[in-house]
Structure formats: C-alpha cells, structure tokens
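Open question from group meeting: does this chain pack into something compact, or does most of it stay loose? Before anyone orders reagents, we agreed to write out a predicted structure and look at it together. Recording both the input and the output here so the notebook holds the full record.
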Amino acid sequence: MNLFLQMLNLQIAMFLLVLVGVIAKKRKIISSQVQKSLSDLLIYFILPSNIIESFHGNLTPDLIKNSVAAFIISFTIQILSIFLGKLLFSHFSDDMKPVMKYGLICSNSSFIGLPVINNIYNSIGVLYASIFQIPIRIMIWTSGLALFTNKSEDKNVRKKNFFTKETVKSLIFHPCIIAVFFGIFIMAFHIPIPISINRSIIFLSQCTIPISMIVIGCILSECKITQIFDKATFYFTFIRLIVFPLLIFSFLKLMKVNSLITGVSVLLTGMPAGATTAILADKYGCNASFASGIIFISTVCSIITIPILCLLF
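Structure tokens returned:
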C-alpha cells in the first residue's frame, strides 16, 4: 500500500507538471518552436544522460542475464502488440486502425516510463528499461511506421517503410540507443568518468521528469476536448493500460521471470500511447484528432492505472 500511495503521489505530481505545460502552451509562454526545442533537448541530452547514469557498477553475470531477458521479453511483447492490434482493432474505420495499432506498439516509455521506473527501481531499473526500449524503437520505425506509409497513396512513400538505409541509420544513431551502448562500454571496461562530466550527467538526468511532463502538456494542449471523448478512445485506453499489461504480467509470472524484470516489463507495457502517434497520423493523412485523443485519455487515465499496476508487485 505504501508503494501504491507513493506512485499515486508521483503520478499526481507529474500530472501537475503536465498542467504547467498545457497552461504554458495555451498562454503562448511556450511556442511551437520552443516545444520542439524542448523535445530535442530531451532526446539528445536529458534522456541519454538518464540512461548513462544508470550504467554504473560491475557487469555481473546476473546483470548480463537480466539484460538479455529484458531485450527478449520486449521483442516478444512488440511482436504480440502487432498481432493484438490486428485482432482487436479490425472493426474500426480505415483512418482509425493505423492510429490504434501504432498506439499499441508505441507507448510513452521514455517521457513517462523512465521517470516512473527510476522512482520505483532506481538506476538498475532504468538500465533494464533502457535495454527494454531497444526493440520498441526498432518496431516504432519499421512495422509501426509502415502502418501509416502503407496507407499512403504515394508509391515512393510505401517503398520506404521497412528496413531502409534511412531507417537503420535513424535507429543506430538515435541518442538513446547510443547512450545504451556507451553505458555498456563504460560498465564493461570500468572506464572512469571525470567528476565534472559525471556531475553534469547527473544534473541533466534530474531534469527528466519536469521537462518531459511539460513537453507532454504542450502536446496535449492541442487536443480538442469535444473530439476525444468517444467509445473508441476509451476502448483503446482500456486495452493499452489494463488488458495488455495484465496479459504480460500473467505470462511472465507463469514463466517465473525475475520480479524486477517482470515489474519493468509490465510497467513499460502499461504506459500511455506515445506522442509520435499523433505526429505520424497528421503527416500521413490519418485521423490526427483521434490520435491526439488517445494520447490525452490514455495519459490522464495512467495517473490511476500505473499505481494500480504497482500493486501487482
């Protein structure tokens, strides 16, 4: 119960930071350009710093075993999300299906997931969460992107959907992926980091929660309330936040997977839809308003569902 209250208070605090972002964007304190700059700051500096900070200590056999387990479990979950999307969202309209399928593949495991994991499991949790996110990023920019580009009438766009040179390059050189391998390299070879650089990394890492929540608030401020409260939105949210993580929890408990890996896997699976859902929907002519709606509703509902998921552990 103490963990539940701790997570509930954390989620409320994060929601208040989201409100700061909403108000700042509505009042034009944060412009669209500033919002983009904050997102870039997160992706290129703050989140990588948070990841690097988690890779300290010795590279023990248990650490290697759990890291491999986190990667395999994540990859399996991503494959499952593709099949579940086809099964559960097949009866929706053509402009909604890609949005819902992508939203099941792409969770907000970075902006919300890493701060939550960090608060529950500290740096070791962030380490496993960072490994866990590698298959997610692979699926986001391959099969996930294909959901939108396959709908496009442009044949040239359709050809670019899977493992193209551009896709592979974007994965390999993604700052968070680089941070994972850099952290592994530092841990494996016991490379000392100068105190001044290490402190800078720690200071940047501490910015993860406030900046990420404010950016989410900016994104959600563009949602039109009248367009998001429908059955499809709540149906998706129920699948994304409750059904999917409970399914994974049951499977991992049945397989008797390490409790820490189980916790990280279930919590990251139970995160709300990722912000790129709306960005890609708008770019490729799907229902961008609906995409914004599932982001908004799933993010708000996660304030309650994430602490409830914590009760499982």
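Observations to bring back to the group:
Residues 109-149 form the longest helix (41 residues).
The mean pLDDT is 84.
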